[in-house]
Specification:
Layout lengths: L11 E3 L13 H11 L30 H23 L9 E4 L3 E4 L2 E4 L5 E3 L4 E4 L3 H7 L6 H20 L15 H24 L10 H11 L2 H9 L12 H14 L14
Parallel strand pairs: 1-2, 2-6
Antiparallel strand pairs: 3-4, 5-6
Helix pairs in contact: 2-4, 2-5, 4-5, 4-6, 5-8, 6-8
Length: 280
């Protein structure tokens, strides 16, 4: 993947090295549900508890750029997502607003949705419109899930930005009425749509960034491998030795690959309507 020359929007909020950083107030059941919708639960049990703690009065670090390569990679990919989604929103008479920050942290950090922890994996919080990344997750992505390469990481970031797109479009609240329809209900449909949106980004990033952030040979294979590695059935088989479809939160490996590929093949977010798809 080509990204080293990619522009930096300065939208990185670097909390690394700040320990637990502080705390946030109680969020109640609605906040917990919001986090669980956005969390990229790579191999962790869905029962991971979100601890609500008391506001310590600390302010967020200023947003900006980072000097290290890992931070600049996140910055380049996030900037490229803005380059892709801004004109797509404009085409339908809407305005795209970037996330309120790409938060890099170590171990644990407060969020607008409760306490975020590294064990949850990367996640998007709808309440504060920020993406949270403990970058040690990249090691897990490669060693634990067998998904190596820059584009595998870019797929994860684009998936979380996909949740932000859903939030702006009002789609995060749409699937509640679908929960009884099978195929995992609204939760799975949300995640598969974010995969499809990641595919749309992959299809358009080269043109949108004038080649600053672009795919190279083998990148789509990396993305598909990552999507397969984090399918619910694959994770359950590895972690508990059996597959429990009723506990799916993100979709099977085949579903995740299929929806990512659909977004990539069409480049059209209109083809990502998982909520109306009769089958996933």
């Amino acid at each position: 993947m080509r990204w080293q020359g990619g522009r930096q929007s300065g939208n990185i909020e670097d909390r690394r090295g700040r320990g637990g950083y502080g705390a946030v107030g109680g969020i109640g059941a609605v906040g917990v549900v919001a986090v669980l919708i956005g969390v990229f639960l790579f191999g962790e049990e869905p029962g991971v508890m979100i601890n609500a703690v008391t506001n310590a009065g600390q302010t967020d670090p200023a947003r900006g750029e980072t000097a290290d390569e890992a931070g600049r990679f996140v910055g380049a990919v996030e900037t490229a997502t803005t380059d892709v989604w801004t004109p797509l929103f404009r085409q339908v008479g809407k305005t795209y607003a970037p996330t309120a920050g790409m938060v890099l942290y170590d171990g644990a950090t407060p969020t607008g949705c409760g306490q975020g922890e590294a064990a949850m994996g990367p996640f998007y919080c709808p309440a504060d419109r920020k993406v949270y990344l403990d970058l040690t997750f990249w090691n897990d992505l490669e060693s634990r899930f067998g998904a190596a390469g820059d584009f595998a990481r870019a797929y994860v970031i684009a998936h979380e930005i996909g949740h932000h797109v859903q939030n702006l479009r009002g789609e995060l609240s749409a699937p509640h009425g679908l929960r009884a329809q099978g195929d995992g209900g609204g939760q799975v449909r949300i995640e598969l749509q974010a995969d499809c949106y990641a595919g749309v980004w992959a299809a358009r990033t080269g043109a949108a960034t004038a080649g600053e952030v672009d795919l190279e040979e083998g990148d789509i294979a990396e993305g598909l491998a990552a999507a397969s590695a984090v399918g619910d059935d694959t994770i359950q088989r590895k972690t508990q030795g059996r597959v429990v479809p009723d506990a799916f939160t993100h979709g099977t490996s085949d579903q995740r690959m299929r929806w990512f590929k659909r977004g990539y093949d069409t480049g059209d977010p209109g083809q990502c309507d998982t909520f109306r798809a009769p089958a996933l």
